[in-house]
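Chapter summary example: a protein plus flavin-adenine dinucleotide.
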Amino acid sequence: MQRYATIVIGAGVAGAAAAAALARGGPVLLLEQHAFLHERGSSHGGSRIFRHAYEDARYVRLAQAADRRWQALERRSGERLLLRTGGLDLATKGAPELAAIEAALTAAGSPVERLGAGDVRRRYPAYALADEREALFSPDAGILAATRAVATLLRDAASEGAELRERTPVTELRLHDDGVEGLTPGDHFVAARLVVAAGAWTDRLLADLGVPLRIEQQQVLYLRVREPRLYVPARMPVFIDRQAGIYGFPVFERPHALKVSDHQGAPTVTLETRSFELGEARAADTARRAAALLPGVAPDVVEGQTCLYTKTPDEHFVLDRHPRHPHVAILAGFSGHGFKFGAVLGDVAAALLEGDDEAFDLRLFRLTGRQREARQR
Ligand SMILES: Cc1cc2nc3c(=O)[nH]c(=O)nc-3n(C[C@H](O)[C@H](O)[C@H](O)COP(=O)(O)OP(=O)(O)OC[C@H]3O[C@@H](n4cnc5c(N)ncnc54)[C@H](O)[C@@H]3O)c2cc1C
């Protein structure tokens, strides 16, 4: 039986960050059921949107904290992980969401600029924004190289002494008042503390959290670009169209195509029923709406990939201690927008395990007092 200070379950962006941060405080064991950097969960792929732009200043401040830590990780590793392209939040003129985002960014001290449709068309000709629409431009936004960021966090954890084990599923968890036991096929581990960062599998390990987690099968599409010179990172900010419900990137991980996706309308699945197939009709609809906004992009899907969201009813994360075991930290329910916070999630886990409730404002992410029903859009 092997003893550790902390066991971390899951090597997605949350677990990798936790292992890296906690390895500085004693022996850490990170257990991943699949191969590292696999494509069955939520953290794989060439890109994720990084932004400070949220309607709630508590998210803006957490994104600022993550920003500093992504930069520190880049300095430590020599890797370029975050490419700043700026970001556009698009909506109908006078949309309350834009006003809320602008207020939250300003309250938290992140720069933001309001642009009319004409400004957007002049400055970023990639976008054909209709006159009745407007945008917020945030210079801090950009592209996180997802899989490479997870690999860099895992390397960072290993360099701090963490023990990393892939293809080692935790099949049973025993939580005690003074520690935890993790059972895997053929092995038995004990530790004083535990971090559960198991993504869509969280409910399998911790069934009684009181916040329902729903799994959605999302898909991202790569659309062929007809005018590459307008769609390069230097000329096209990442975007979130809050009216059309689509978001996307300039040409980045594919030289001839850019990535778009649709935040809404994805099917709810289970870990058994999820597939790796694209929903063709939904893909065609997303591509059509993207091509309407981006005239130099053909609505032909050249490639696509599936990925899982683990949604809470209010779409706020679960960043909390287990209700009956304060030495167990839970990082879950990232609801399709958690990657950008990856670099700070390790320090969040450390603060939770140390009982330090001052380090981060986690009131939005607690298990208690949460909405039980999905929020109406
Ligand atoms: C299509 C798509 C687009 C997205 N776009 C963005 C974006 O632009 N910006 C953004 O910020 N976020 C975005 N997200 C969300 C973001 O990617 C996720 O919130 C984040 O990756 C969640 O990471 P995780 O570590 O919680 O989960 P995962 O990466 O799924 O990691 C959980 C890990 O736990 C392992 N595991 C589970 N059970 C066990 C067990 N019993 N034993 C051992 N290992 C176990 C799993 O195998 C898995 O590797 C997007 C997500 C998707 C799907």
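Key point: The helical segments are 13-22, 57-77, 96-108, 117-123, 146-159, 202-205, 280-293, 342-353.
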